[in-house]
Amino acid sequence: MADHQATAAQIAEAGRDLDARGLLASFEGNLSVRLDDSLILTTPTGAHKGRLAPEEMVVVDASGTTVGQGKASSEVKLHLAIYEERADVGAIVHAHPPTATGYAVAGVPLPHGALAESTALFGCVPVAPYGTPSTAALADSVREPVRTFDAILLANHGAVTVGQDLNEAKERMVQLEHFAHIALVAHLLGGAQALEPDQIAEISQMRESAGGGPIPPVCYPAPEQAGTITLSHDELVRLIADAVRTIG
pLDDT tier at 227 (50, 70, 90 boundaries)? Predict the structure, then answer.
């Protein structure tokens, strides 16, 4: 079982760091750490995550019932669903990083294979279907994607990252926002130029050699349709007129 007091201090420090980086604001977001197979330690409801004291953290069991004092965030359902799906996950960060959340609000996944480092780290970052915050619908929306991905955008809401420990989950949130900012700049400059499939495969092999899993096939950029022809409005009108005269 993880040391309760030390873990509480780590959560408080992570909250201050995320707040200082602008990845969550005021009462937004929540963090948790798995203490053992049946208990998690999480941030309390209605609290500024950048100003938490270790003694304010709340212990809940696998059903979300508080063990001891305090009241956990209503988003604890999201955390419990992820822990249920992933035995390897030891910590979770849910935040509203501005750029990444902009993609989530737009319903736009971050571009696949656009940045070598993010491809190696995340594979890709999907957008989970919308679920009303604090409800079972939100928790259920991440069950399928979290089986494969360590970072997920939550439609019209925010983002969630997972890790073997709290530092890994937190740093993945930092990297997610960094990648989203780069992706947005690339979009403004005309669009990200995706890596070639063989280049992504090479990154996947490197990731596996380092002990990670292979990059899922869904993370490879979709090939452009071969033979696609683009016509202007005038060209299309002339083409149709020619076809009508030919038929007549």
Answer: very low
Pick from 151, 149, 146: nearest CA to 104 = 151
Cβ pair 124, 193 in contact under 8 A? no
Task: Please identify which residue in the block is written with the tokens 């059903």.
Answer: 63
Q: What is the pLDDT of residues 196-207, one digit of tens each?
A: 999 999 999 999
75 is catalytic: yes
CA dist., res. 94 & res. 114, Å (int): 24
Q: Parallel, antiparallel, or unpaired for β 127-128 and 151-154?
A: parallel
Burial of 233 (0-12, 13-18, 19+ CB in 10 A): exposed
Q: How confident is the model at residue 67 (pLDDT cuts 50, 70, 90)?
A: very high
Token pair for 194:
């995706």
Give dist(CA 182, CA 180) in Å, integer: 5
pLDDT, tens digit, for every residue of 137-153?
999 999 999 999 999 99
Fold held by 4-188: L-fuculose-1-phosphate Aldolase (3.40.225)
Catalytic-labelled residue, pool 28, 56, 75, 84: 75
Judge contact between 161 and 92, C-beta under 8 A: yes
